[in-house]
Specification:
Layout lengths: L19 H6 L5 E6 L6 H11 L4 E7 L1 H6 L11 H9 L6 E5 L5 H7 L3 E5 L10 H6 L3 E5 L7 H12 L1
Parallel strand pairs: 1-2, 1-4, 2-3, 4-5
Amino acid sequence: MMMDASDPSFEAKLCAPQAVSAHAERLPRPLVFTNGCFDLLHRGHVTYLAQARALGASLIVALNTDASVRRLGKAAERPINRLEDRAAVIAALAAVDLVTWFDADTPLELIVRVRPDVLVKGGDWPEQSIVGAAEVRSWGGRVVSLPIRHDRSTTGLIERIRKSAD
């Protein structure tokens, strides 16, 4: 994703995976890292990201690429929004300092390269199931599974939209 002089300032928060280490080094610590699809942004997402950001001085969000989302076994039409659009929307949030992406099934390679101080996932992920937890703990970081405050989901939103269209 290339920047243009007419692009909004939040676009500067977008960072290709190969450059994420260099950008992460310039962010204030403690550095928080989370990942996900963040397809149709909803209250649950923004609350979660604000809570994650509150755990440190800066927040990196890594998004699944479109192909990675499809491999997760979500509905055939997912993601609804393309990676470029999902990344821009997440970057526009004040809680987010840097947005990158990964095409693998997990963000482990990014986690190891970024070396966050705090690794965060939502409460639907028990700490022992969070990818990268052992690695983050090995360098003295901590792993947090945040309780879900607003039980919302993109799948639920899609179902409600379909029902209202009938």
